[in-house]
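Have a close read of this protein, sequence plus C-alpha coordinates, and explain what the C-alpha coordinates say about the fold. Thanks in advance:
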Amino acid sequence: MTLQDKERLKKMYMFAENASLIAEGVTLERLTEDNAFQYSLLYPLGQIGEIAINMGSEIPVIYPEIEWADWRGFRNRIFHDYGTIDFSIVLEMIEEALPLLLIELRKIHMDRETAR
Protein backbone atom coordinates (compact mmCIF):
# COMPACT_ATOMS: atom_id res chain seq x y z
CA MET A 1 0.00 0.00 0.00
CA THR A 2 1.38 3.37 -0.98
CA LEU A 3 1.70 6.31 1.38
CA GLN A 4 -0.87 8.14 -0.79
CA ASP A 5 -3.37 5.33 -0.34
CA LYS A 6 -2.82 5.36 3.43
CA GLU A 7 -3.54 9.10 3.43
CA ARG A 8 -6.61 8.59 1.25
CA LEU A 9 -7.97 5.97 3.67
CA LYS A 10 -7.38 8.38 6.55
CA LYS A 11 -9.24 11.17 4.72
CA MET A 12 -12.06 8.80 3.77
CA TYR A 13 -12.42 7.88 7.42
CA MET A 14 -12.52 11.57 8.40
CA PHE A 15 -15.17 12.39 5.78
CA ALA A 16 -17.25 9.35 6.78
CA GLU A 17 -17.17 10.36 10.44
CA ASN A 18 -18.10 13.95 9.57
CA ALA A 19 -20.97 12.83 7.35
CA SER A 20 -22.20 10.52 10.08
CA LEU A 21 -22.20 13.33 12.65
CA ILE A 22 -23.95 15.74 10.28
CA ALA A 23 -26.56 13.14 9.32
CA GLU A 24 -27.44 12.12 12.86
CA GLY A 25 -31.22 12.10 13.19
CA VAL A 26 -31.82 13.33 9.65
CA THR A 27 -35.24 12.97 8.08
CA LEU A 28 -36.16 12.86 4.42
CA GLU A 29 -38.17 16.05 4.93
CA ARG A 30 -35.18 17.98 6.25
CA LEU A 31 -32.95 16.54 3.56
CA THR A 32 -35.29 17.63 0.78
CA GLU A 33 -36.16 21.06 2.15
CA ASP A 34 -33.02 22.42 3.85
CA ASN A 35 -30.55 23.51 1.17
CA ALA A 36 -27.79 24.43 3.62
CA PHE A 37 -28.11 21.03 5.25
CA GLN A 38 -27.98 19.34 1.83
CA TYR A 39 -24.73 21.08 0.96
CA SER A 40 -23.15 20.36 4.34
CA LEU A 41 -23.98 16.67 4.03
CA LEU A 42 -23.39 16.10 0.33
CA TYR A 43 -19.87 17.50 0.44
CA PRO A 44 -18.34 14.82 2.72
CA LEU A 45 -20.38 12.08 1.01
CA GLY A 46 -19.13 13.23 -2.37
CA GLN A 47 -15.57 13.33 -1.09
CA ILE A 48 -15.84 9.71 0.05
CA GLY A 49 -16.73 8.77 -3.52
CA GLU A 50 -13.98 10.98 -4.93
CA ILE A 51 -11.42 9.24 -2.76
CA ALA A 52 -12.82 5.85 -3.81
CA ILE A 53 -12.31 6.86 -7.44
CA ASN A 54 -8.70 7.89 -6.83
CA MET A 55 -7.74 4.96 -4.62
CA GLY A 56 -4.96 2.71 -5.87
CA SER A 57 -6.06 -0.44 -7.64
CA GLU A 58 -4.76 -2.76 -4.91
CA ILE A 59 -6.86 -1.20 -2.14
CA PRO A 60 -10.23 -2.64 -3.22
CA VAL A 61 -8.54 -6.05 -3.34
CA ILE A 62 -7.09 -5.61 0.16
CA TYR A 63 -10.40 -4.26 1.53
CA PRO A 64 -13.19 -5.96 -0.46
CA GLU A 65 -15.68 -5.37 2.38
CA ILE A 66 -15.97 -1.73 1.30
CA GLU A 67 -18.48 -1.13 -1.49
CA TRP A 68 -16.05 0.82 -3.68
CA ALA A 69 -18.22 0.83 -6.80
CA ASP A 70 -21.28 2.02 -4.86
CA TRP A 71 -19.38 4.97 -3.40
CA ARG A 72 -17.87 5.89 -6.77
CA GLY A 73 -21.30 5.76 -8.38
CA PHE A 74 -22.87 7.73 -5.55
CA ARG A 75 -20.24 10.44 -5.99
CA ASN A 76 -21.12 10.67 -9.67
CA ARG A 77 -24.80 11.02 -8.81
CA ILE A 78 -24.07 13.81 -6.34
CA PHE A 79 -21.78 15.80 -8.62
CA HIS A 80 -23.41 15.17 -11.99
CA ASP A 81 -27.16 15.08 -11.40
CA TYR A 82 -27.21 18.89 -11.34
CA GLY A 83 -30.05 19.51 -8.93
CA THR A 84 -32.03 16.34 -9.61
CA ILE A 85 -30.66 14.30 -6.72
CA ASP A 86 -33.06 11.71 -5.37
CA PHE A 87 -32.80 12.38 -1.64
CA SER A 88 -34.44 9.07 -0.76
CA ILE A 89 -31.28 7.44 -2.22
CA VAL A 90 -29.11 9.82 -0.19
CA LEU A 91 -31.04 8.85 2.94
CA GLU A 92 -30.62 5.17 2.09
CA MET A 93 -26.84 5.64 1.73
CA ILE A 94 -26.73 7.48 5.06
CA GLU A 95 -28.77 4.85 6.89
CA GLU A 96 -27.34 1.71 5.29
CA ALA A 97 -24.04 2.19 3.45
CA LEU A 98 -22.41 4.87 5.63
CA PRO A 99 -22.56 2.85 8.89
CA LEU A 100 -21.04 -0.18 7.11
CA LEU A 101 -18.31 2.00 5.61
CA LEU A 102 -17.52 3.44 9.03
CA ILE A 103 -17.23 -0.04 10.55
CA GLU A 104 -14.70 -1.08 7.91
CA LEU A 105 -12.74 2.18 8.04
CA ARG A 106 -12.57 2.01 11.85
CA LYS A 107 -11.13 -1.50 11.58
CA ILE A 108 -8.51 -0.25 9.12
CA HIS A 109 -7.75 2.77 11.29
CA MET A 110 -7.44 0.66 14.45
CA ASP A 111 -5.23 -1.90 12.68
CA ARG A 112 -2.93 0.90 11.56
CA GLU A 113 -2.83 2.43 15.03
CA THR A 114 -2.05 -0.96 16.60
CA ALA A 115 0.75 -1.57 14.09
CA ARG A 116 2.59 1.58 15.20
